[in-house]
């Protein structure tokens, strides 16, 4: 236990140092002037301060007021040493944070009793602080482990959703990356942007309930088939709903709202404008961008430029204008994501071709 001693009287300082030395496991840090103490801050480490009240330049209260400007000393117990029995002086000391007083001339027996009590208090505070820090670390560790489990659940559900159609898996990952880029440009909190990236791959989880004749159909869907496919949004939300996981709750929200339109003409609930959750408004643009820039059974892939023009032209009707503006700002990032994904697909195709060639040979 390190005890700061400040007294401009050398005789008193020597006495205080000697008395601290008699306390068990206590070390004295003696200073003969307030200036010397202030020069040593904030590197100075101590657990208790014993400060003379009457000193030149700075009195004890003024010195301690300067010390506690540093947050690390805010909870340090302070004892003032004074020969002044005036109540005004003592009230000033109490208001500064004094926990006790020692009256000059110092009585060694009284000193030992009073300071030992403060030492015990300081040790108890330290133990509580250590326990609080341990608890904080344990809570942080538990939260990280829980989030990792949630991410694994989402990853495995996404794999399940793309089991019938491998392209679906790549689509969900691209939509997740595009969504995060848009959310960041929209100025959403960083944690929410990250959560949207993690939850967005679940936006089409409801398609697991679609029959293969509809899901894998080569060509355009009939009107009845299209209405059947529309049900995937609500089904996906229902699959994920009522989870205690915040990520799965967000995924449920996205599944239910990523086909809603700003003008209220979307599905499944015909929500309009800000009644649509912001996560759904963001993913809606990301999903449409990816659907248009990739080949589908019923259409060829659109060019990057044509797709951008299409989305900008539907600001205020299909899409949230603020999200469209964020999408436009995010275009360099979005284009880089798209190019990188196509490079990865080409590399995978080349590896597959090389494997097949070696097997034939």
Automatic annotation (TrEMBL):
Keywords: Phosphoprotein. It comes from the Bacteria. Residues 2-119 form the Response regulatory domain. GO terms for biological process: phosphorelay signal transduction system. The keyword Phosphoprotein applies. Residues 146-343 form the HD-GYP domain. One of its GO terms (molecular function) is phosphoric diester hydrolase activity. Residues 168-292 form the HD domain. SMART domains: HDc, REC. This is Two-component system response regulator. The modification 4-aspartylphosphate is found at residue 52. Transmembrane segments: none annotated. CDD domains: HDc (cd00077).
